[in-house]
Design goal:
By secondary structure, this protein is of the alpha/beta class. The protein folds into 2 domains: about 70 residues, 60s Ribosomal Protein L30, Chain: A (2-Layer Sandwich), CATH 3.30.1330.30; about 160 residues, Alpha/beta knot, CATH 3.40.1280.10. Helices cover about 35% and strands about 20% of the residues. It contains 9 helices and 11 strands. A 7-stranded parallel β-sheet has the order 7-6-5-10-8-11-9, with helices on both faces. A 4-stranded mixed β-sheet has the order 1-4-2-3. It is elongated, with a radius of gyration of 19 Å.
Length: about 250
């Protein structure tokens, strides 16, 4: 049986996995005419791990990744085993510190999901939780937008998000939901300790059952006429406030 693999594309995403998880890179293709500084740096990084890039026409790379902008670089990568509820539970058991989780309740735009994964990686999130249905999956577009973060931040895809939140609460993990009408600002809330930050779908926000599972709700103070933010922007603001508090800021 062939080893499970997927394609990572884009110069930044490919370089990230070469640097951080070289053992997972199986093959690398670079577009034939590309010979600029970034392409040469990628070749050097590949050579340093004993990988010889193959040259291919841009059209051939496009056949591997579809309509996505591959920037002249595509890598075949060992696929990480998908996480479910049991994997999330085992990972939480093994954590040596208070968990910080990001829960996305029905984010359907792959670009937003990719941006959220990139932010989660930067903020030190231990895992991202997404529902299996009516939500974007981690596909090639998500991996490209995540700029390599999708290869390292564990994503647990669960069948029943409300039940998963109940299980997190049973572990004494506080569940903080974000909502425009929340009485408390993120800057006044305690976002330290074991915490799961929950953000809702683009436009509709948290679903009723998800909202009911939250221990408390917070909002991002808005100074202008716009009353809501893109979910990936809201994710960044909220996670980095949690990180600031965790660092003692």
């Amino acid at each position: 049986m062939a080893e499970p693999r997927h394609f990572v594309h884009g110069l930044h995403a490919v370089r990230a996995i070469i640097d951080r998880a070289p053992e997972r890179v199986l093959e690398l293709w670079l577009a034939e005419p590309r010979d600029d500084v970034r392409a040469r740096e990628l070749r050097d990084a590949a050579a340093a791990i004993g990988l010889k890039p193959q040259t291919a026409a841009p059209e051939a790379l496009a056949r591997l990744v579809g309509e996505a902008a591959h920037q002249g670089a595509v890598a075949a990568v060992r696929t990480l085993r998908a996480w479910g509820d049991e994997d999330l539970s085992a990972a939480l058991d093994a954590l040596p510190e208070d968990p910080l989780l990001l829960v996305l309740d029905g984010v359907t735009d792959p670009h937003n999901l990719g941006a959220c994964l990139r932010t989660a990686d930067a903020a030190g999130v231990h895992a991202v939780v997404i529902p299996r249905d009516r939500a974007a999956a981690v596909d090639g577009t998500v991996r490209k937008v995540a700029a390599g973060a999708a290869e390292f931040v564990p994503v647990a895809t669960v069948t029943n998000l409300a039940r998963t939140l109940d299980a997190l609460k049973a572990r004494n993990i506080w569940v903080a939901g974000t909502a425009e009408d929340a009485p408390q600002s993120i800057y006044g809330a305690r976002l330290t300790g074991p915490l799961a930050v929950v953000l809702g779908a683009e436009g509709s926000g948290l679903r009723r059952l998800t909202r009911e599972r939250c221990d408390f709700l917070v909002h991002i103070p808005m100074a202008g006429w716009v009353r809501s933010l893109n979910v990936s922007v809201a994710t960044g603001i909220t996670l980095f406030e949690a990180r600031r508090q965790r660092l003692g800021g």
